[in-house]
Amino acid sequence: MKIVEKVLLEASKIGLPAERFIVDGLIMAASATPHLAKISLETVSEAYTQFGLLATCGLSNISFGLPGRNGINATFLSMLIGAGMDCAILNPQDELLNIIIDSANVLTERDPHAGEFIARHKSVKNFFKDLPTVAPSSTGEPKNQIQNADKKSPQSLPEKIYQAIVDGNKASLPALLEEALHSLPAQELLNKHMIPAIMAVGDLYDKKIYFLPQLMQSAEAMKAGTRYLEPALKESKAESRGTIVIATVKGDIHDIGKNIVAIILENYGFKVIDLGKDIAKEVILEKALEHKADIISLSALMTTTMVEMEQFMSYMRDAGHKIPVMIGGAVVNERYAQEIGAQYSKDAVGATELAGKIMALKKS
């Protein structure tokens, strides 16, 4: 709200009234940063209560990386409307969202006497009454792990380490690794048990058995495990699989996808130099040369910023450098990558596979 207040103050100096502004609640993915959903709701509410401003948002961001996205979207839409949101960027053909909006218009007196609601839904007694319901967990506890009746309980210490990463059980890893280091070298634990575990998680994610929250849980567990092993790995002079400089391009402040890619690449044994978001092409190349990067990874979420990728490729070529470049993001595709001379990955798991192939070619 301090930023909003500052903007309004500066705008008033040039004659722009407050009513010309709409506050964006800046919705982030609940699968990666669930605590920010509450902040978005507070932003929408306080935009009106403090400044009398209208509020909007990009709704579908909230459900990124989750199954049943329209259910998450619809639930959050109702919460946002309750907080005072006035408009949103959403799918106008989504039936569930339209029901939420029509219902909210009745409850907020935007639809006097429910006239429009009745006209649209007069033949409906109960929405979705014939759809099967999903039974809740008998324990009432969230199910974060794969349910597999045939899965055997891990017996050996390496199997327990492997399973802890697959299950995203970050808390159990230090004790397991401490015990394992008495009989196994750190490099063996990493290469033969931990990396195969995170690769298995990537496979589960590709098959839509795991979703982004499970992927992130396992990635955080892997990250905690590798950090625990760092002193022992340094003693054994373990080498990384390569150095990757990663950034979201100039003009783009979206970095959730980039952050996920960085975490997964680190878990696969790469040294990752994360430059952050809204990074100019000059800085990206400078840092890549400074760190002797084997690969540069660029992210963009908007069509207005993806052009920065092409500009970077031209800038690097004009400077006489040939560093492999991976690109990704919601608006990027294989065709665009080929057009600008880069290589495309659709997600974090794909990025690790592509980085591995690039390094294999460099060493061959």
Q: What labels would you give this structure?
A:
single chain, 364 residues, alpha/beta, TIM Barrel, Methyltransferase, Methionine Synthase (B12-binding Domains), Chain A, domain 1, Rossmann fold, 3 domains, five-stranded parallel beta sheet, 7 strands, globular
What does the model show?
This protein is an alpha/beta fold and 364 residues long. It folds into 3 domains: 2-121, Alpha-Beta Barrel (TIM Barrel); 157-235, Methionine synthase domain (Methyltransferase, Methionine Synthase (B12-binding Domains), Chain A, domain 1); 243-363, 3-Layer(aba) Sandwich (Rossmann fold), CATH 3.40.50.280. The chain has helices at residues 2-13, 35-51, 69-83, 95-107, 115-121, 157-166, 173-180, 186-206, 212-235, 256-267, 281-290, 303-318, 334-340, 348-363; strands spanning 22-24, 54-56, 243-248, 271-274, 295-299, 325-328, 343-344.
* Quaternary status: single chain
- β-strand percent reads 5-15%
Q: What is the top-level CATH class of the largest domain? A: Alpha Beta
CATH-defined topology of the largest domain:
Rossmann fold
Could you name the CATH homologous superfamily of the largest domain? Cobalamin-binding domain
